[in-house]
Amino acid sequence: MMSSDNMKKVVLVTGANSGIGLALCKRLLSVDDQIHLCLACRNMQRAETARAALLCSHPGADIALLKVDVGSLKSVLEAAKELKQRYRRLDYLYLNAGIMPNPRIDFNAFINGLFSRKAIHMFATGEGLLTQEDQVTEDGLQNVFATNVFGHFILLRELEPFLCQSEKESLVIWSSSSNARRSAFSLTDYQHTQGKESYSSSKYATDLLSVALNNHYNKQGLYSSVVCPGLVMTHLTYGILPPFFWTLILPIMLLVWLFKQKPESLDPLAKYYSCTSGLGSNYVKPVKMDLDEEAAEAFYQKLLDLETKYRCWQNVK
Ligand SMILES: NC(=O)C1=CN([C@@H]2O[C@H](COP(=O)(O)OP(=O)(O)OC[C@H]3O[C@@H](n4cnc5c(N)ncnc54)[C@H](OP(=O)(O)O)[C@@H]3O)[C@@H](O)[C@H]2O)C=CC1
Ligand SMILES: CC(C)=CCC[C@@H](C)[C@H]1CC[C@H]2C3=C(CC[C@]12C)[C@@]1(C)CCC(=O)C[C@@H]1CC3
């Protein structure tokens, strides 16, 4: 018979020590403080600080730490092994850790975009505005791809037996982005070795991967979904512009949005209302992803090939 402790849901969040990951953990505990929450972080000191902050608002919560650098395959394999020893189940896997290294704003694109019909879209998604300088990891992979996509994919593959259990369903949730863009991604260069939009490419890759995962795993009780947090002030965005700059431009961004609103674009037969209600909160609306299932499957097969290659390499080492 299962003890009540074994019946508690196990939730793992990568990149849980700051920004969206930490806010998510706080929210999860406020919804259900009976979960086993595991903060998967690369820096244990920052993880400890995050744990202490969560315990301040939720004393008595069951919060564990797991060391993992999702950009390193060795670290991911070790973390997965550790997890399998600690828990008998995994209910929610939040694949949230992510990087946008050395971001630069393309000011020419910004000025051109500002006076074009795409201004609102540009402010909402950052499309065409940002470039990044990527690097190669110890495993020989592009860092952004390794961190935002492949490390998480390997983690998920390692935890497959826990996620695919006949008696219960499990959910994998990816932190994607409005910056995910089809044109930044290429199946022939899925690690984005050539371009300067590795972030955009990696987020499009997570969208594709999520679709493929559903096709492959739904029958086994594993469901994948992507969330798109919009624009959130975190270390990631403070890497693009310093905090004081954001304080200055946010009201301007709001004004641009107001002036760009066309009254004729409003549907007279629609009510524009907040999704928040006292009967349960739903702040989000679904947006169809710009992708097709064949591309998702082709990308999934490429990831499986890469996985095979790296597993052989790990065995040889
Ligand atoms: N902020 C925004 O506007 C948006 C963010 N997102 C996505 O949300 C996710 C969270 O980002 P956000 O909270 O904004 O940014 P933060 O930089 O605040 O958080 C990123 C988290 O990921 C961790 N992380 C980064 N690299 C690794 C690694 N190799 N191994 C383990 N952990 C790692 C960081 O750890 P450490 O502290 O050690 O660096 C940190 O905890 C990302 O995937 C991002 O792409 C999506 C849309 C918008
Ligand atoms: C005055 C001035 C220089 C304005 C530039 C504003 C841009 C820096 C932002 C406009 C939209 C923003 C945005 C992001 C980063 C910063 C902007 C490009 C993200 C790409 C950050 C990470 C994400 O995942 C999505 C964000 C979408 C919007």
From TrEMBL:
It is an enzyme of class 1 (oxidoreductase). It is a single-pass membrane protein. Keywords: Endoplasmic reticulum, Glycoprotein, Lipid biosynthesis, Lipid metabolism, Membrane, NAD, NADP, Oxidoreductase, Steroid biosynthesis, Transmembrane, Transmembrane helix. Signal peptide: none annotated. It is found in: Endoplasmic reticulum membrane. It catalyses: 17beta-estradiol + NADP(+) = estrone + NADPH + H(+); 5alpha-androstane-3beta,17beta-diol + NADP(+) = 17beta-hydroxy-5alpha-androstan-3-one + NADPH + H(+); 4alpha-methyl-5alpha-cholest-7-en-3beta-ol + NADP(+) = 4alpha-methyl-5alpha-cholest-7-en-3-one + NADPH + H(+); 5alpha-cholest-8-en-3-one + NADPH + H(+) = 5alpha-cholest-8-en-3beta-ol + NADP(+). Pathway: Steroid biosynthesis; zymosterol biosynthesis; zymosterol from lanosterol: step 5/6; Steroid biosynthesis; estrogen biosynthesis. One of its GO terms (biological process) is cholesterol biosynthetic process. Its main location: endoplasmic reticulum. One of its GO terms (molecular function) is 3-beta-hydroxysteroid 3-dehydrogenase (NADP+) activity. GO terms for cellular component: endoplasmic reticulum membrane. Its EC number is 1.1.1.210, 1.1.1.270, 1.1.1.62. The chain crosses the membrane at residues 236-259. Gene3D superfamilies: NAD(P)-binding Rossmann-like Domain. Belongs to the short-chain dehydrogenases/reductases (SDR) family. ERG27 subfamily. Binds to the short form of prolactin receptor. This is 3-keto-steroid reductase/17-beta-hydroxysteroid dehydrogenase 7.
